[in-house]
Structure formats: C-alpha cells, structure tokens
Write a structure and sequence with these properties.
β3 and β4 form a beta hairpin. Helices cover 31% and strands 31% of the residues. It is of the alpha+beta class and 179 residues long.
Length: 179
C-alpha cells in the first residue's frame, strides 16, 4: 500500500462531532414530543366538551318535541346506581298499523356519564347514546309552561336540561309540539 490508510473506523474527532450533534438534537426532539403530548391531552378534552355541547342538546330537543308524556320519576330503562333525570314517553305506529309506546330516558350513570336510553314498552333497553362525558354534579331538569313559569313536567311546554362539565355549564332546551 502506498501510504493510504484503511477506513476501518471513526476517528476520535468524528466521534466527538457526532456526540455533540446528538447532544444538541436530543433535547429539541424531547421538548417537541412533550409539547405534543400535552397539546393532545388538551385537544382531546376540548373536543369532548365541544361534543357534549353539540350532541346532548340536539338529542334532547328532539326527544322533548316528540314526547307525549314527560316525567322525572318512574322505573325501567335504568341500571343499578343510575340517577333518572327525565323520562319521555311517545306513541309510535308501525307500517303495519300496530302501536307501541317506547320510552326515552336521560340518566346520569355512576361514572359521571350522561346517557340517553331508548326502551321498548317492556322497559328493555334497545339503545343507549352517550350525551356527555365527565359530568360534574347532577344535571338539573326544569319544566316550564309556554310563558316560562315552572310547572309540573307532565304539563310542561318547555323542558331544560342543565349539565355541567369541566368547561362549565350548558343547557339543552326542548319545546313540545302542540298536541
């Protein structure tokens, strides 16, 4: 060989430069990951609160509009440890002409979830939709006449459901259709 050295490894200078570059890049990448994780948690929480404010009022308004009966007591459509908030009854006629009396209940579960449950006439749960997550305290139901005066729910024209989540309180309002 004529004085050329073989490339069998790294020189000390090359190794020190690589270590210095790694030492500079690692904290920047770590900071970016930590900020990303924190931002993701905040975004998920914000989206959950936004979902609460959109879904619950939409479903609640429709339930009040189609209700033939409204009550804040009763059995059926409940699981152990549920808190019944309001129950809406309605009458439906199938394509064959038979009539059913399904019930929709709004309950607060023991885990702080606001659920809308549909039950058949025999009180068996046929569907369940989560209306709000991370509910703080117990939501309140207010039944009013058309003038806004509090009345018994059985004769209510307007029903309000006020729910508090980590972002604050929101109210879902439904107006019954004229019978």
């Amino acid at each position: 060989m004529s004085g050329l050295r073989a490339d069998d490894g790294l020189t000390l200078v090359e190794l020190l430069v690589a270590a210095a570059i790694t030492a500079l890049i690692t904290p920047v990448l770590t900071s970016a990951l930590v900020v990303g994780w924190k931002t993701t948690d905040a975004t998920v929480s914000s989206l959950s609160d936004s979902r609460n404010r959109q879904l619950a009022p939409s479903l609640f308004t429709r339930d009040v509009q189609s209700a033939t009966t409204i009550a804040t007591t009763g059995a059926g459509c409940l699981q152990p440890a549920d808190t019944l908030l309001v129950r809406f009854g309605r009458t439906e006629t199938s394509a064959t002409g038979s009539t059913t009396s399904p019930v929709v209940t709004w309950v607060l579960t023991a885990t702080g979830v606001l659920e809308r449950r549909s039950c058949d006439s025999g009180a068996a749960i046929t569907s369940s939709v989560t209306g709000a997550h991370d509910v703080v305290g117990t939501p309140t139901v207010a039944c009013k006449n058309a003038s806004g005066v509090s009345v018994a729910c059985a004769s209510a024209a307007v029903v309000d459901l006020t729910v508090t989540d980590p972002s604050g309180a929101f109210t879902a309002t439904g107006r019954r259709r004229a019978s």
